[in-house]
Amino acid sequence: MTIHTPPPEGGRIVDEPLEQALSRRYLAYALSTITNRALPDVRDGFKPVHRRILYAMHQMRLNPQAAARKCAKVVGEVMGGYHPHGDASIYDALVRLAQDFAQRYPLVDGQGNFGNIDGDNAAAMRYTECKLTPAAMLLLDGIDQDAVDFRATYDDQDEEPVVLPGGFPNLLANGSSGIAVGMATSIPPHNVGELIDACQLLLERPEATTEELVALVPGPDFPTGGVAVEGHAALLDAYETGRGGVRLRARWETEDLGRGVWRIVVTEMPYQVQKSKLIEALADLIETKKAPLLADVRDESAEDIRLVLEPKSRTVEPEVLMESLFKLSDLEIRFPINMNVLDATGTPGVLGLKPCLQAFLDHRREVLIRRANWRIARVEKRLHLLEGLRIVFLNLDEVIRIVREEDQPKAVLIARFGLTEVQADYVLDTRLRQLARIEEMAIETEYNELSDELAGLKAMIASPAKQNALLKIGLTDVRKQMVSPRRTTIAEAVDASALVAPEAFIPREAITVILSERGWIRAARGKVDDPSELKFKEGDKLAFLVPAFTTDKLLVAASDGRIFTVGADKLASGRGHGEPLRLMIDLDEGADIVGLLAHRPGGKLLIASRAGYGFVAPEDELIAQKRGGKQVLNGEMLAALPAVGDHVAVIGENIKTLIYPLAELPEMSRGKGVKLQSYKQGGTADVAVFSAEAGPDWVDGGGRRRNWPDWRDWLAKRASAGRQGPRGLRKFR
Known about the structure:
- The chain has 733 residues and is α+β, with helices and mostly antiparallel strands.
- Among the domains are: 20-187, Topoisomerase II, domain 5 (Alpha-Beta Complex); 251-330, Gyrase A, domain 2 (2-Layer Sandwich); 502-724, Neuraminidase, CATH 2.120.10.90.
- It has a 4-stranded mixed sheet. A 4-stranded antiparallel sheet has the order 12-13-15-14. The chain has a 4-stranded antiparallel sheet with strand order 22-20-21-25, with no helix packed on it.
- It is elongated and about 140 Å long.
- The two termini are 71 Å apart.
């Protein structure tokens, strides 16, 4: 790096490669985002914006006993003094601190419209008011007693706390979420009573294991309740490593209407699921017939949540209906756990349950010692003054004479009685009338009490055991103030594989899938005996005719190497021309359909490319979950055939034919495969799989199917050139 001489106007010019300059600046931006915006501090559980909001409200004396102030006033104070960002981001953070459905223990007492669980936004800040809650005061307790460090604000006009004293483990109690650059955090809320019990255990036995702590903190406790169905082992691993997740279900009950009629009533929603959007999603499932057991959904909520689900048939078990809806909708969610936080040094890291609680206790110990030192300084100052008063009392008449008669009473008092300047100033600032009324017993009582307090404070600072005792007492008091029953039930783990599949609710009926050359697909009931009677649009004709059932999944193979999955129950009826297949899958315009078949669980397919390569693929690994399908073949696909048989027959565009055992092809779920047949020019024309016992057959130019009794004469090694087949052989299908 070369630094040139600054120009006369001043400034600096630096020669630096663009890549290096961008890298350094992006790193600075990333670190700023991580430490100053996205990740919470492990000690108080806050990001800077939340910490600044609470501190500004504390400075405005918006305690629980005070009258609420306009949120616009609070936002203005925060933005002008501490957080130089947009007012919208500050107000959004303030609103979240006040929402009882977002915070397990709200820290802001909001008055007015602060949004609801339906997803409605809060009213404008000029219409709403706020003040601190008792829980917030616990987090701020001691902030005026040198409990934490302060730093200059962005404009150096004031100071702000680096961290709050934190009277309870707010990080885990209220949780946190955020996205930084290259990392993110997602911490669920917990019950503060359980967290304090775990802290008490750590104070008694610092060597306690995570498993012992999980016995006291069995899982998250969401403000909206619900039922957690994650297994104990999975939760233990998440709390041990700091990474994992928890499955959360809505709480529901069956309402008996008499005469065998019933309905489902949902009373608690999963955390962060908007009720209005959930209702829309359930209604869409009914309209698209993806939830065949659900007849209707309606919202009867008032102050409490009451979501009514009407079954389509009274013969269906309520558990079966709910299991299907848990799988199809946000009535069940998975809340991720990624406990990525900033430690006391500002370093990001993923911490487990025990390190988080230990960091909180270490912070509380530091706060305790700093408050004790702050008190010691003031007690010592008062004792120093009282010592001067004791001397004055013993010589009261002489002190009064000196004050009245001497020109420089301060110097005389210091010289005559050995007082310090502070003591002499205190005596001189005291009225003679008050000085004369000073009683020796009052002085001695206060002096003895403060001396005992001073000795106790110094003994506490020197004794970790006494510190632990005070920490336990403090946490016990906090627990009494904040204790509340657990809202989220920790249920037995539910095996996801045991969930009822949606296909189980579809009536199993025999159909025939009809796909035209132009890509129109439909499903005719039963078996199509005569394909020639099928009608198509002008200029179109039959391409594939596949027998199936309504419960089947259809595998659609495209020439671009992808395989798509379509539910047979979603096809249009066979009365019309159907609907374009491209509306169901994201098929490229330049790609053609080369295969259509019903999925056979446990079955296998022969995947062949036009270039003469191929492999055997398990059907279960070819199921695509998205409209974009699954890329299976690297190259242009020629065919995807059921691998039913023991031999493969390949014919090239050069009319040469080769036959070899199917076992010579590898089994894989994706790739290019191995060479099927060698060609000097051209590629593969057709491929077939057959059983040696039945032998292969082929179709001549007239469309007649012919047997091939002497096919063994064409047996050779895979990837051979082969030889010319029977007269007229051009394709196998």
